[in-house]
Amino acid sequence: MRLLVLNGPNLNLLGIRQPEIYGHTSYTDLVNLLNDWSKKHKVSLDVFQSNHEGELVDKIQAAYQKIDGIIINPAAYTHTSIAIRDALAAVAIPFVEVHLSAISQRENYRHISYVQDLAIKTIEGQGLAGYLQALDFIKNYLDDSDDPSPST
């Protein structure tokens, strides 16, 4: 199983940017947490962060027929990027949307997610643990969809 974790703008500043909202853990700590999960579950994992919308779109497009599932925290692009939405729709790779904070409880403009209706699940407000929940969820989802037993 091959999974891709995509992180949008300013997530590279974890631990520095608004720690009262996003926590004191660094982006390196997040990457280490994700890599530990992938080793434990014997899953191939690629983690990518960019502050540039086009780079995220390129990474999504490059995942086509190579990646089984995506975890994405589009960050600020959640509320603005039709390009990321269109790329996710085009490749049709199952994905889980993750947000460190509870965006539905924050400023009104953060309540809109351009990707939420395409996601198989959205996890918000769980901090870094939300990424682990997303990885567990998508792994189980993909394992279940690979199950050759007939459904009843």
TrEMBL record:
SUPFAM superfamilies: Type II 3-dehydroquinate dehydratase
Pathway it works in: Metabolic intermediate biosynthesis; chorismate biosynthesis; chorismate from D-erythrose 4-phosphate and phosphoenolpyruvate: step 3/7
EC number, UniProt record: 4.2.1.10
Reaction catalysed by this enzyme: 3-dehydroquinate = 3-dehydroshikimate + H2O
Record carries keyword Amino-acid biosynthesis: yes
Purpose: Catalyzes a trans-dehydration via an enolate intermediate.
Name listed for the protein in its UniProt record: 3-dehydroquinate dehydratase
Organism: Facklamia miroungae
